[in-house]
Design a protein that fits this description.
alpha/beta; Rossmann fold; Dna Ligase, domain 1; 7-stranded mixed β-sheet; 7-stranded antiparallel β-sheet
Length: 703
């Protein structure tokens, strides 16, 4: 166990604010502790000599040594209580009391002071505004909830106390047990990352689940979860899906990669399975807590009912799994064992008159097939198929083959005893075939994520000082946006750019064009004009002789379109062969929780319409950068679809890595778009650049 082990295994628990008053939270917590806690319970209240038959102490100093304190006093004396506990040597504290940052104003200041006290005294504080904590091995229920938890191997954290009370009520009915339960409250000191680390070190926790509304430190959570999920699966429900984060974004990347996509990317990189509902959360957890990992993605379905068998097949098709293709030997064995009317191909339909012997033989043959990694037993109730006997048959086959099997014993009361028997052997039963398949799917997805290796990001030789000089330009402007005039930022980090220059008079434009071999591209340069081509601010294939007039026309169009726009000049750039290339976008949006969020996808003028993009949290290694390229629907274009010459995919992957290093090195970069990044057979070129800089953050960065 880790540094929070005594939080869940105390010998003495004090309730600071204990009372015998009916309906009081202090009484509810004391009663819950008295009902099952193995250790000593110590009430503390200066107004009582005795509470519910226990000797009550006037303050912490006069009480026996306290391992864990549950604080349920009024908000204005919480801080004094915590100071007294720290002075008495108590390190683990749960603050039930509300009235902190969630109330604003004075409450927020109180919470700030609580954090300071905890830091100064190295305290482990849960809450404030917490329902409390539970640990079933010691019988400790230090909450004011109405339900105690059953014993089990799932550890559960929630940002909502009400969610815990509802879940425990439902889980007790379903026979689902827990190891530890924590109501996170305001997460002033201890947060989700702390408990992920703690339970990852706990050999008695098989699965970590949680309900979260936000993650305070996304980068820290990813780092911790990556380590933990190598051995212990994590399943989370994350609420609060919103597009609000994208509304204020000024770049393509910011508009596409809003806060919700940051959570999706961050949790996936952390190896966390994300559930879409409470039902799915426990469907996943039940499979992960009791079943071995499948060796392959092939699923066998054994049923006595054709319709449910088809539903199960559809569910497999909707998952990351696949229906197993039986070996010829398996089909021959099934044909010999089953009636002529039975279906011996997958799904196996043993037909409605199947008895225990036939059902068991079909399952045994299926599990012995080398292409089967897992199985679903789907049964409709009949007079010749007692569910209790079927449960025993399933258990025997699972023990003999060490292959994950889930069941779908359809029906009501008839299935309850069998369901209990299966659960005691770690085999989950689901009423709905699609839920049964989702449990197996979670096993396979966890297997893949736990086996995935992430290398240290590559460090390129870059000109950091030159890059910093470019970013400093934002300090000298009226706004914090930079554009193509800052292409040397990319050059400083080794990202290729076409030959060219930004000029502020037509004569210089012609000189630059004459120095470039062939026709050129000309673009207006203005931080105020986003869609240059829409206003005629881009001309392609301009001969050197026509550059002077083209310059005047581009500037005139820009001033007519937006008279108050700041015109930096016109970019004169070599013309690339776009016919043989693919326009992509590489960008970054800095998320408040997860930090730099990298985006790659199909670029050009339709990027926000098509949204063919992939997202990851930086920094990324080469493998992750390559995944980003492979994920987009347009990936075949880069690899040479329909006779096209393949693009330099390695160059794209390296550009993503270099951008990852740039935005990691400079937290002052809030948003950045390279659009398009042209990827052709001969390499990649960054054609256009747009970024937003926080000048104040520049002051905090190392030179």
């Amino acid at each position: 166990m880790g540094r929070l082990s005594t939080l869940f295994d105390p010998e003495t628990v004090a309730v600071v604010g204990a009372t015998d008053r009916e309906g009081a939270v202090g009484r509810a917590i004391l009663e819950n502790l008295q009902a099952g806690f193995d250790g000593e319970v110590v009430p503390i209240n200066p107004s009582r000599d005795e509470v519910l038959g226990l000797e009550c102490y006037e303050d912490v100093q006069h009480a026996p040594p306290i391992d864990l304190a549950v604080v349920v006093v009024p908000p204005d004396i919480v801080l004094d209580s915590i100071r007294e506990l720290a002075a008495a040597g108590t390190d683990d504290i749960v603050v039930i009391t509300a009235g902190f940052a969630e109330t604003g104003g004075d409450g927020a200041e109180r919470e700030r002071q609580l954090r300071e006290i905890a830091t100064e005294n190295d305290l482990n504080v849960v809450g404030p505004n917490s329902l409390g904590i539970m640990s079933t091995p010691t019988g400790m229920n230090a909450t004011f909830g109405p339900e105690d938890a059953r014993s089990g191997s799932i550890s559960f954290m929630s940002q909502s106390g009400a969610f815990i009370t509802a879940v425990l009520d439902w889980a007790n009915e379903q026979g689902i047990g827990f190891q530890d339960v924590v109501s996170l409250g305001n997460k002033t000191v201890l947060d989700e990352t702390d408990f992920v680390r703690e339970w990852g070190d706990d050999p008695e926790t098989d699965v970590i689940i949680g309900y979260l509304e936000d993650i305070d430190d996304g980068q820290g959570f990813i780092e911790a979860a990556r380590e933990v999920t190598a051995e212990t699966p994590i399943v989370l429900v994350k609420s609060g899906r919103t597009d609000a984060g994208a509304q204020a974004a000024s770049s393509h990347t910011g508009a596409i990669a809003g806060s919700e996509r940051a959570y999706e990317a961050g949790l996936e990189q952390a190896g966390v399975l994300r559930a879409r509902s409470v039902q799915e959360l426990f469907d996943y957890a039940r499979a992960l807590a009791g079943l071995p990992e499948p060796e392959s993605d092939g699923v066998a379905v054994v049923t006595n009912a054709g319709g449910p068998g088809v539903l199960t097949t559809d569910a497999v098709g909707d998952s990351t799994l696949e229906m197993a293709s039986f070996a010829d030997e398996t089909i021959d064995r099934l044909a010999a064992a089953m009636p002529d009317e039975a279906n011996v191909y997958n799904p196996i339909d043993a037909i409605g008159d199947a008895d225990i012997e036939r059902f068991g033989e079909a399952l045994e043959i299926a599990l012995e097939d080398p292409n089967v990694g897992s199985a679903v037993v789907v049964a409709a109730p009949t007079a010749v198929l007692p569910y209790d006997d079927l449960a025993e048959t399933v258990i025997e086959n699972v023990e003999a083959h060490d292959t994950p099997v889930v069941t779908c014993l359809m029906g009501g009361k008839r299935a309850r005893d069998a369901e209990t028997t299966l659960r005691e052997s770690g085999i989950p039963n689901y009423f709905d075939p699609s839920r049964a398949v989702s449990g197996l799917d979670a096993l396979a997805r966890y297997r893949d994520s736990s086996e995935r290796t992430v290398a240290d990001p590559r460090t390129f030789d870059v000109d950091r000082e030159r890059a910093r000089e470019v970013l400093e330009r934002a300090r000298r402007r009226n706004d914090n946006r930079l554009g193509v005039e800052s292409m040397d930022l990319l050059e400083a980090y080794g990202i290729p750019t076409p030959q060219g220059e930004i000029v502020d008079d037509p004569d210089r434009a012609r000189e630059v064009a004459e120095s470039i071999d062939g026709d050129v591209v000309m673009k207006i340069v203005s931080p105020d004009i986003t869609h240059k081509s829409d206003i005629g601010g881009v001309k392609v294939g301009v001969a050197a002789a026509d550059v002077y007039d083209a310059y005047e026309d581009i500037v005139a169009r820009a001033r007519n379109y937006q008279p108050d726009a700041t015109i930096t000049g016109v970019q004169v750039q070599e013309l690339l062969d776009l016919e043989a290339s693919t326009e992509t976008i590489v960008g970054m949006n800095r998320d408040p929780q997860f930090g730099p969020l990298l985006l790659f996808g199909l670029g050009g003028i339709f990027v926000e319409i098509l949204e063919d993009t992939s997202v990851r949290v930086a920094p990324v290694d080469e493998g992750t950068a390559r995944e980003m390229v492979d994920e987009i629907q347009a990936a075949p274009l880069l690899r040479g679809a329909r006779g096209r010459e393949p693009a330099d995919v390695d160059g794209v992957v390296e550009t993503i890595q270099r951008l990852s290093q740039l935005v990691t090195d400079f937290p002052s970069i809030l948003e950045l778009d390279i659009n398009p990044l042209v990827a052709g057979p001969d390499g990649v070129q960054a054609i256009d650049l747009r970024l937003t800089v926080d000048p104040d953050e520049l002051d905090t960065e190392e030179p």
